[in-house]
Design brief:
- This protein is of the alpha+beta class.
- About 20% of the residues lie in helices and about 35% in strands.
- It is built from seven helices and 15 strands.
- Strands 9, 10, 11, 12, 13, 14 and 15 form a seven-stranded mixed beta sheet that branches. A five-stranded mixed beta sheet has the order 1-8-7-6-5, with no helix packed on it. A three-stranded antiparallel beta sheet has the order 2-3-4, with no helix packed on it.
- It is elongated and about 140 Å long.
């Protein structure tokens, strides 16, 4: 069947442009360009509110600056899990010296056991059955005791915690003052009512400058003066604020805590009796 058009129909059809493959591609490109232009206009005129705040978050640090300084340890001492202070070993071991091998990441230490016989032990070797040397630092070592990490420190000048006698002749001139005993103070009171500021000499912490905070009752009760410098805790030279945080593990049931205080040009020994929790 053939469609026959008259002269008028043929003239009307001639008015439409002839479409080929090239003109069809032009139409598609124009349509795509129109869609992209519409998307660009939509991005420009659409407000940013529904998409969220475009401004960056304000930079900052978690915690207050004082808390950061209080927890800062300039010696990077080893700690237990969850950033808790390391546990001081209860074994009868004495550390006489350490050698840190920074190039190889190891080292060795001279340690004496209960028999007081000194021997050199390298990292990874056994100190005694079931106890291995795990790591070495300049002032302490870390041992592995049945899978648990414990610390052993170089011995420091000890302070005699024995209280003075009730009566007796006065000490001769120039003799050190006898220790003052203070009882009935809890560890929570010491942490809450005594502030500590590290004193740094030559890049190392040489003491903790104390000041009252909170009610200050415990500060006055233990006989401290503002500006005193605590140089030793439990017979061990202080290394930072973390020394007081370890007292909860060393005195879980209370006990006598000897500390050494620098007050001006004199040294004052104090024995604090930690109350049982």
């Amino acid at each position: 069947m053939r469609l026959v058009l008259d002269a008028r129909a043929r003239a009307w059809l001639r008015r439409f442009p002839r479409t080929n493959i090239y003109s069809l591609a032009e139409i598609l490109l124009l349509a795509l360009l129109a869609v992209q232009c519409a998307r660009l206009v939509w991005l420009v005129v659409t407000p940013t509110g529904p998409l969220g705040d475009w401004r960056p978050a304000t930079p900052g640090f978690a915690g207050s600056p004082s808390a950061m300084l209080r927890d800062f340890d300039p010696f990077f001492r080893l700690t237990g899990g969850d950033d808790k202070p390391g546990v001081v070993t209860s074994l009868q071991l004495t550390l006489f010296g350490t050698r840190v091998d920074e190039a190889m990441g190891g080292g060795s230490a001279i340690i004496a056991g209960p028999d007081n016989v000194q021997k050199s032990v390298a990292v990874g070797q056994e100190i005694m059955p079931g106890v291995k040397l795990k790591a070495v630092a300049f002032d302490h070592v870390t041992i592995d005791r049945g899978g648990a990490s414990e610390e052993l420190y170089l011995p420091q000048d000890s302070v005699d915690p024995t209280p003075p006698p009730a009566a007796g002749p006065p000490p001769p001139p120039g003799a050190p003052a006898p220790p003052t005993t203070v009882s009935g103070v809890s560890l929570n009171q010491l942490r809450a009512e005594i502030g500590f500021i590290p004193r740094v000499d030559g890049g190392r912490v040489s003491g903790l400058v104390v000041r009252p905070q909170g009610s200050g009752a415990a500060f006055r009760q233990v006989g401290l003066h503002e500006g005193d410098v605590v140089t030793a805790i439990g017979g061990r030279a202080v290394s930072g604020r973390s020394d007081f945080d370890q007292l909860a593990q060393q005195y879980p049931h209370g006990g006598d805590l000897p500390i050494t205080v620098e007050r001006g040009n004199s040294t004052v020994p104090i024995v604090i009796t930690i109350a049982s929790p």
